[in-house]
Amino acid sequence: MPKLRTWIEILILSVLAAVFAWRGFVPAWRSLNTDFPNYYVAARLYSQGDSLARIYDWIWFQRQKDHAGVERRIVSFMPHPLYAAMPMVPLASMPPLQAKHYWLVINLILLAFSGFLLLRTTRIGKMRIAILMLLAVEPLRTHFLYGQLHVAVLALIVAALWLYLNEWKIASGAAIALAAAIKIYPLAFLFYFLRKRQWRAVTGLVCGCLLLAGLSILLFGFEVNRVLVEQVLPRIARGEGVDPYTLNLNSLTGLFHRLFVFEPQLNPKPLINMPSAYAVLQPLVEGLLFVPLLWLLTPAHAETEKETIEYATYVAAVLALSTNPRPYHYVILIACSVLVTDRLLRVKRRGQAMLFLGLYTLACLPVHRADGSEGFVGAVMSSSRLIFTLALYLFLLAVLSSASRETWKQRLSSRAAFVFVAIFLTGLSASVFYNLRYAKTDFKYEGRITSEAASLMMTDPSVATVRIAFTALQNPRYAVGTLAGKQASSSGSSQAMAELAGTTSRIVRIDLDQHSATDVAFAVEVEDAERPAVSPDGRWLAFIREVHGRGSLWIKSIQRDDAEEGASDEFRLAGPEYDVLEAAFDSRGSEIIFAGQLHGGPALFTIQRESSTITQSTSGPASRFPAVSPDGVWLAYCRLLNGSWQIWLKSRHSADDRQLTAGSCNATSPAWTPDSKEIIYATDCGRGWGINALARLRAVP
Prior knowledge:
globular
């Protein structure tokens, strides 16, 4: 029998390994898929000494990818922490696909290292550990195909447990800190160590995080770290790092968004349009799942078997409560599977072990991808991974509870029960208050402009009498989109300036009447230039040139008067020390207002076109996105308030300065209508961070 069992295990391992190689490793070796280019481009920028201050800007990062010649249509560094790029830095000088080959080999080594540490921690044997690893064939397939980092996170989480069990508590906490630096979710282990009263592990984790935070400022600069902490992380915590309505992410946050929050394009048919239900149910359900686990953890160093089952359950909790669990995140569930299977087989609970392995396998299977048109059945099918993950987690809670020596009556009458009820109610109250506060503003869509075109993102609007032009993310590319203007007519120019990005950026003149993306005719106006702004009289073109990620402001005449000698020459108005972000002309074309980062955060500056005299126009909160009304009376711009950009209106002739938008989401890129009364702007309210739609507001009565 033992020999037969060995042959069966060899057969299972061979089949799983063949499936992984056929469906995962070989395709990964041959192709450059998302998300590897995201890390590679960021590492390349860092290696070149480029400023990373705008790395979370979707369009800026796409431009850098094009300049690097990476053959991948759409990229974004959202929602990754900055250290996620660092493992790729030694590979950044290689061609992208060659760099990926090295990264795949490194991942195989890290996977083997994880297996080695699990072998040292358990008694389950090499063959079974390998089988349990490869049962997660779909997470491993997507991980290798996309060139992800989660095998490195798995190795650090397993190393943290091994160090913890061997009484190297500070090093254990430091390993978790390092894992949290490249992927944020391991930071949740801070609560594990706090509950266990392992103060040396807490010290290692906290000191490691502080050290890495300080090093991050030295390596990447203060501004991009401020953007990450103040703007990006709060939205990730709310599940808005990407599209928050997709059930394919299999998160509780996404499920409650889908059920109770209306969004005109991304979720036009929720089950019930009731944001208050989302605000209450999301923290309620997550609290009911998480607080009992904290309660069941032993507040001291227990025997090894109890420690491993507690640690495994906590790993499952991190996945079950994650706001953005992609299939490759489930690579870390490998640690849970080995630790739990080892524990159950040791105590001869084979039935429970089989049930656990069934749930583990089901949680790691591919899921149905809902397209939004299949109703309730499609929604349930696309949430299968979430369902099985929650079932697995609840099963582990039951196993953990059965390992306790106290009866339920003793637990419920203990002082700890009252403490954890108080923790639950306090956390629930704070979360509901926070959710209700932002639901009142972020889920309101007055003035939202809808489009029949399938554009995930619409941003950077430009308004003419005939139409609204904007930058549209129409997978697999960014394009110039148009909408009929409020004052649409058959007259008016259909010419516009646009940036065409390849291995370099150039500004081209395009005809908006061209409807075929493959047949658009254009004339090149400026080479090595981006973000065009045309003066109201159509004579001058302002644009930005970047050197190592820092922008300088240039100007050129585009309607040269033959009597004006040299008018077609390009002139630099502000150097890269200003790090120019965007620019706009005043109504006469004699001044240019631009956003720059001369001393840290963004501020507005005004420059005279003729004299090149520069004065700072704003102080205090960060300011960007200037737009002067056609009548020259008003300046619309954006201020950063409490981590989000809001539109303000400032009189150019008085001290009048008032706020037009509010909320914990962003309103950016204002553009005036020709009558100087309304503003078209980009907003990510009710959407993922930076995944903008267009909206209209009345700015002047």
